[in-house]
Design goal:
This protein is an alpha+beta fold. The chain has one domain: Thiol Ester Dehydrase, Chain A (Roll), CATH 3.10.129. Helices cover 24% and strands 41% of the residues. It has two helices and five strands; from the N terminus they run βαββββα. A five-stranded antiparallel sheet has the order 1-3-4-5-2. A hairpin with a 3-residue loop joins strand 3 and strand 4. The protein is globular. Bound molecules: coenzyme A (COA). Coenzyme A binds next to strand 2 and strand 5. Belongs to the acyl coenzyme A hydrolase family. It comes from Geothrix limicola. InterPro entries: Cytosol_ACT, HOTDOG_ACOT, HotDog_dom_sf, Thioestr_dom. Keywords: Hydrolase.
């Protein structure tokens, strides 16, 4: 499911006239937190693990980036999210893959200890359908 769209500004650009990879990772981490909150009734999540982060192509200033999230695994206290980032070009209506990665988020209580996830079934269904639509077959 589409979680957010952002524009990359001149101020976000690092070496090589492209978006700094650490900036993209921070944006994806925030998106993972937002997605976890949308999919559950839990207040707090911590990022436990980030894996298979691949930067497919550089992002330039002025480009619009879109963050899509699918659920790879529904656990007891954790959920694993597949995040795909694409550049959207409004004039041509084209998209290109820029980054993808897997985030394991753990629901925690006020003391930051793991607790059970209280799923929102309707949101899980929306996410599953969106993921299936983007990856048919
Ligand atoms: C997140 C945290 C609270 C989890 O506590 P923990 O005692 O390590 O984790 P547990 O052993 O209780 O496992 C919690 C869940 O994570 C899963 N998990 C643990 N290690 C994992 C790993 N290496 N890969 C994937 N999942 C893992 C467990 O399977 C469990 O999920 P489930 O209940 O859905 O099966 C703890 O590791 C922590 O505080 N980490 C730091 C988080 C942080 O600061 N993040 C910001 C980065 S700067």
């Amino acid at each position: 499911m589409l979680i957010s769209r952002e524009m990359v500004l001149d101020m976000d650009i690092g070496l090589n006239a492209a978006l700094f990879g650490g900036d993209m990772m921070a944006r994806m981490d925030k998106v993972a937190g937002i997605a976890a909150s949308l999919l559950s009734r839990n207040r707090r999540f911590l990022t436990l693990k980030v894996s298979e982060l691949v930067f497919h192509s550089p992002v330039r200033a002025g480009e619009i980036i879109e963050f899509y999230v699918g659920i790879s695994r529904q656990g007891r206290t954790s959920l694993t999210l597949q995040i795909e980032v694409q550049v959207y070009e409004p004039v041509s209506d084209r998209r290109r893959d820029v980054t993808s990665g897997e985030f394991v988020m753990v629901a925690v209580d006020e003391s930051l200890h793991p607790i059970l996830i209280q799923w929102k079934p309707e949101m899980v269904q929306v996410a599953a359908q969106a993921h299936a639509d983007r990856h048919p077959g």
